[in-house]
Amino acid sequence: MKAKTERPVSQFNSELKLRGFKVFQIENDSNATRIYSRKDFYKICLTTGKSVIHYADRSFDMDGTILFFGNPHIPYSWETISRTYVGYTCLFSEEFLKVSDRSESLQQSPLFKIGGTPVLKISEDQRMFLNTIFRKMIDEQGTDYAYKDDMMRNYINLIIHEALKLQPSQNIDKQNNALVRVTSVFLELLERQFPIETIDHPLSLRSAQDYAKNLGLHVNYLNRAVKEVTGKATTTHISERIVTEAKALLQHTNWNIADIAYALGFEYPTYFNNFFKRITGTNPSSLRVQEV
Predict the structure, then answer these.
(1) Which residues form the HTH araC/xylS-type domain (predicted)?
(2) Where in the chain are the domains?
(3) Residue stretches of the chain with pLDDT short of 50
């Protein structure tokens, strides 16, 4: 794996990062959903069609109109089955929506949290009402109104509160074992941190506490779930995955060891050397010499 240069940022992504939000109609901007960073933005979709949504360890077979809530800290994918798929999407950062540090984190919301209800079945009357809100948002984001951001926050919160009044969809495949669910999400989030492709964006999640904070969980609960389900500690999973990535970087790039250490989140190369030797029994430089 060679070190890669970063791709130029698209106009769509630039606007999204600058404003902290973007709203668009799916049939008019279908490619847009594939070029934003899921690590930074929450997502609300109002769509009509047939699809399968894989969200953490659950799958949702949906047909008709649904309202979907995507959390950037929880892995998900979307398979469109229908030939035609219409609706609206709103992307926004938590920083944009929260005007005060005292506001409750979105990760605690029943719509966004692990084990919550990210997919809701929508009736025709509800669809018409939500369509109106999304159209107002699209119209408003193109204006120069001084308080546009406040209006957009109000619209997003209105959608969220409307969703909280709805009953969960009846065709959700429920997972009763909460520990299995938490462990599955942790392992998927761990894997999403890799591969490391550039030293400009070093690994940011390196401890059990980091992952627990990202997932909106208490670290003791995360550790208990992972240990009970897998038989290994959370820190062991993290360390083993970092070592696997370190070996790949040592074998398949020309990065020096200091760069590799930095890319993997180590402040000093000596910390990386000691970590690598503790896990593997050998020094990083020895592995590189063996592979040459």
Answers:
(1) 184-290
(2) 11-164, 178-291
(3) 1-9, 29-35, 169-176, 291-292
H helix runs in 119-233, sequence order: 124-141, 148-164, 178-192, 208-215, 219-230
Residue in the block written with tokens 């699209």? 138
CA distance 175 to 183: 12
Is there a common fold for 11-164 and 178-291? no
What's the DSSP call for residue 233?
Answer: -
pLDDT in tens, 9-42: 456 666 676 788 999 998 754 444 444 556 678 9
Write down the pLDDT at residue 158.
Answer: 94
Rounded Cα distance between 67 and 126, Å, is 10
Pick the closest to residue 68 from 151, 218, 172, 155 (CA basis).
172
- Contact predicate 19/91, CB 8 Å: no
Is residue 85 within 8 A of residue 114, CB to CB? The reply is no
Dist CA 17 CA 11 (whole Å): 10
The answer to whether the beta carbons of residues 162 and 130 sit under 8 Å apart is: yes
Structural fold of domain 178-291:
Arc Repressor Mutant, subunit A (1.10.10)
C-alpha span between 6 and 201 (Å, rounded): 10
Say whether domain 11-164 belongs to CATH 2.60.40: no
Angle between helices 208-215 and 219-230 (to 10 degrees): 110
pTM: 0.59
What's the token pair of residue 121? 């079945």
Residue length, the chain?
A: 292
Residue 150 carries which side chain, given as an amino acid letter? Answer: D
